[in-house]
């Protein structure tokens, strides 16, 4: 978590140097710091010798000086030897920004939202579509008791793709003082489906649980269909609550003359804005005085913006920490109908065009031709060949990943594509770039991974980067910023099975391994002397009183260091070479994929046939005569991840039950989540370029004599082995041999 350049600031290149608690300061800068804010060092360091020198500037600055003047702060920032490669971004040949991931939580049932309370505790709360919200502590552990459980009231189903359920949770900006939380979920009332917005209060007996008896229904909206439920709640900088609804469902918004979205007297297909201040004993909510249609008798006063189809995940930009550029700007992802997905900037009173327009094109041509429509075009739209269900994200602000600064990062639920937009201030246009998972050695560090579950449900930020009080001079503020810059982190939530009851959801933290110059002073701790643990530079969370059992976090995948493969001499074999047919490069539309290794043979490096004699010039080992040609050769040692196909008790040719070799034993793979991309990985390993079918339900028999070694396997299709795909811990499964997976492979492409 710390910059390697912090080692210079702390004079920590050698283990025998005394441990410092404050980075080395250059003489002129130290003088300014001492004159303006020397009192802050009592809060930054427990070094008694440093504190004893607080009132003697000369001795104080001499104590903080470094022998190498080039490495003190801020001279270090101009050291060309250290800085020459810091701004270099890691990108592939197509310019796709390469990032890595770290797993944060797993085993979740369609995690739809991850939020924080902004109360200094640095807890985060993850909501599942079934109606449960879980508390996660700063150490990554989860509390056994849910923060909220309204699963009996929430309307949803196990059907894949069901859009109903618990959809959002947001904490009141003054939650620390009033304990209020707001939720958005689907309910059924007297056979009528509705959207419900409710207020809960924190339990007086447990700060990690809501009082379930405190629910106060703020708003209910009838849903004419089971889809297009919207599902976002946000508090803006103005203190008002924003509610993002869908158009009511079905296709083409068929309700009324022009649809719900264009009807300002309906609450569906809208951005609503209400006031939730001082309303405990009064009305459920008030209407802000500057709402755009408050004086229009034909419109609902709650309406802030209209003409939207099915907004899924919206956010406010926190703005550039220095210039405040972009602060308060609201972006939304709006899911399209048949052709386009779009991203918009939401502004007061604006019409976003649905159902007249889908993206930049006309959907209802008659309505689109209406000159009075006056709709706002999206900042970006993409066709369905790239993805079919946009998931809105965040504009990243902070120095944890400076290469991402100012990028609006979002994704697509169906294709699993991660994308970004950056504003060109000269033209006002937004430039698109794709985000890829790191290739080669980019993500080869413990705790990092480069693959993820396809169905991207939501994005999130944590509670890092609290603003500093402004009672110090500019010198103190600069010093504070260098020590505690905005370490905001970006996350996304996805699943391998898009069902509200399938526990395949994972939360990933986005990691940029090619972080920039800001990292020199982002995390000034003596980490490299191994006397301070990683994370020491993080803001200290406020204490949390825990009354429930803690469940420690266990990642689904353990880090496996890949060693360089050796190439033994080819032996007599009738099997196809491992890895044959693997394609080079990242497959279009396959997020998280990595280049496959080529297995083309060098000229003349053919495979020997049984019974053939050595070619000219082939040397025999000493003592190897003709009589030894029939001797059984020593078996080649199996590599982890090797696979074979079994059918009716014998080896299958191109079809059969998948068995995998891991840590010295063969075992089977569960079909829970088994898919064609995973089958393609197996087929390529066995020399088949095409996977015809991913077989399920033990079609080729049950491998009852073996252990089940892999479950929850999710592949992009370009991995080298199944171990490179996402999967549960080896040997951990929730299935039986009745679900043993299989494949059908082919040498030729099968169509139809």
Automatic annotation (TrEMBL):
Domain SRCR: 643-746
Keyword field contains Ribosomal protein: no
Cysteine disulfide partners in this protein: 715-725
Ranges annotated as spanning the membrane: none
One CC-aspect GO term: membrane
UniProt-annotated stretches for the region Disordered: 557-653
Domain of life from the UniProt record: Eukaryota
Pfam families xref list: GSDH, SRCR
Keyword Signal: yes
Keywords in alphabetical order: Disulfide bond, Signal
Name of the protein in its database record: HIPL1 protein
Gene responsible for this protein: Hhipl1
């Amino acid at each position: 978590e710390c910059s390697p350049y912090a080692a210079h600031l702390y004079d920590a290149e050698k283990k025998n140097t005394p441990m410092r608690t404050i980075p080395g300061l250059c003489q002129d800068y130290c003088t300014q710091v001492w004159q303006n804010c020397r009192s802050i060092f009592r809060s930054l360091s427990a070094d008694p010798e440093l504190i004893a020198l607080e009132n003697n500037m000369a001795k104080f600055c001499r104590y903080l000086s470094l022998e190498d003047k080039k490495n003190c702060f801020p001279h270090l920032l101009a050291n060309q030897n250290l800085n020459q490669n810091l701004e270099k971004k890691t990108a592939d040949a197509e310019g796709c920004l390469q990032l890595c991931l770290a797993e944060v939580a797993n085993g979740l049932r369609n995690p739809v939202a991850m939020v924080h309370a902004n109360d200094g505790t640095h807890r985060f709360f993850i909501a599942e579509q079934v109606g449960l919200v879980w508390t996660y502590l700063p150490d990554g552990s989860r509390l056994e008791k849910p923060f909220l459980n309204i699963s009996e009231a929430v309307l949803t189903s196990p059907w894949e793709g069901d859009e109903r359920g618990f959809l959002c949770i947001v904490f009141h900006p003054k939650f620390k003082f009033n304990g209020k939380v707001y939720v958005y979920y689907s309910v059924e009332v007297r056979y009528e489906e509705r959207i419900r917005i409710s207020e809960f209060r924190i339990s007086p007996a447990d700060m990690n649980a809501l009082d379930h008896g405190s629910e106060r229904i703020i708003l209910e909206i009838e849903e004419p269909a089971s889809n297009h439920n919207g599902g976002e709640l946000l508090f803006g900088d103005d203190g008002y609550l924003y509610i993002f609804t869908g158009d009511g469902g079905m296709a083409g918004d068929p309700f009324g003359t022009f649809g719900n979205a264009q009807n300002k007297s309906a609450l569906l297909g809208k951005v609503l804005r209400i006031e939730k201040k001082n309303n405990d004993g009064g009305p459920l909510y008030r209407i802000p005085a500057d709402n755009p249609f408050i004086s229009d008798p034909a419109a609902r006063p709650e309406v802030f913006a209209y003409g939207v189809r099915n907004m899924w995940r919206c956010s406010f930009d926190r703005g550039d920490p220095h210039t405040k550029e972009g602060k308060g700007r609201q972006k939304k992802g709006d899911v399209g109908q048949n052709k386009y997905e779009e991203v918009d900037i939401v502004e007061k009173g604006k019409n976003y065009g649905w159902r007249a327009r889908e993206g930049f094109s006309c959907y209802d041509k008659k309505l689109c031709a209406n000159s009075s429509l006056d709709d706002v075009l999206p900042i970006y739209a993409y066709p369905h060949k790239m993805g079919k269900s946009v998931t809105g994200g965040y504009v990243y602000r902070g120095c944890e990943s400076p290469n991402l600064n100012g990028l609006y990062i979002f994704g697509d639920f169906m294709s699993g594509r991660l994308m970004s937009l950056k504003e060109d201030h000269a033209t006002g246009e937004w430039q698109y770039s794709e985000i890829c998972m790191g290739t080669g050695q980019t993500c080869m560090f413990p705790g990092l991974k480069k693959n993820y579950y396809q169905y991207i449900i939501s994005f999130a930020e944590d509670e890092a980067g609290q603003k500093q009080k402004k009672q110090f001079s500019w010198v103190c503020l600069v010093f504070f910023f260098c020590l505690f810059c905005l370490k905001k982190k970006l996350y996304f939530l996805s699943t391998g099975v898009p069902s509200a009851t399938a526990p395949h959801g994972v939360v990933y933290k986005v990691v940029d391994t090619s972080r920039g110059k800001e990292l020199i002073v982002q995390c000034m701790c003596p980490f490299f002397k191994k006397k301070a643990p990683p994370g020491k530079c993080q803001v200290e969370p406020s204490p949390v009183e825990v009354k429930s059992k803690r469940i420690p976090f266990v990642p689904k995948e353990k880090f496996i260091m890949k060693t360089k493969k050796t190439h033994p001499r080819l032996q007599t074999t009738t099997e196809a070479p491992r890895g044959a047919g693997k394609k080079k490069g990242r497959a279009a539309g396959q997020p998280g994929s990595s280049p496959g290794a080529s297995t083309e043979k060098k000229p003349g490096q053919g495979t020997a046939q049984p019974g053939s004699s050595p070619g000219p010039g082939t040397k025999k080992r000493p003592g190897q005569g003709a009589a030894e040609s029939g001797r059984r050769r020593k078996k080649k040692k199996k590599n982890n991840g090797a696979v074979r196909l079994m059918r009716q008790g014998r080896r299958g040719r191109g079809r059969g039950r998948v068995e995998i070799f891991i840590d010295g034993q063969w075992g089977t793979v569960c079909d829970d989540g088994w898919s064609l991309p995973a089958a393609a990985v197996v087929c390529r390993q066995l020399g088949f370029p095409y996977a015809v079918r991913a077989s399920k339900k033990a079609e080729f028999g049950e491998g009852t004599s073996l252990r089940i070694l892999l479950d929850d396997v999710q592949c992009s299709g370009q991995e080298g082995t199944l171990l490179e795909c996402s999967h549960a811990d080896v040997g951990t499964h929730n299935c039986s041999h009745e679900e043993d997976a299989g494949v059908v492979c082919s040498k030729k492409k099968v169509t139809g």
